[in-house]
Design brief:
alpha+beta, two-stranded antiparallel sheet, single chain
Length: 100
């Protein structure tokens, strides 16, 4: 909300912020990729946004329990699995927090 900031938006107020900032931090690299087919087959991951029709394999919100399950799966998935869910061609895990 600093008028001197390059990204200042006069329409945004403390009570009604128009923009949100996402802080992303690299956490770890997956030992093995986790495929979308494995995510869909895991009953603990029912309803995660990435499995819903029309959603892309990009940044998707996850509940903490789903995040932990995917992390657990990455340590037990065989390398022969196909259809890997990757980030930019790698299997990096990013944790993001949204702040207003």
């Amino acid at each position: 909300m600093d008028p001197k900031d390059d990204h200042f938006d006069p329409k945004s107020t403390e009570e009604n912020p128009i923009w949100m900032q996402v802080d992303m931090v690299f956490v770890e690299k997956f030992k093995n990729p986790v495929s979308i087919s494995l995510i869909k087959a895991n009953p603990r991951l029912n309803g995660v946004p990435v499995t819903q029709v029309g959603n892309r394999l990009s940044i998707q919100p996850l509940l903490e329990k789903h995040f932990e399950e995917i992390c657990r799966m990455s340590t037990s998935v065989g390398e022969e699995d196909t259809g890997a869910m990757t980030c930019g061609g790698s299997t990096e895990l990013i944790r993001a927090n949204v702040t207003v």
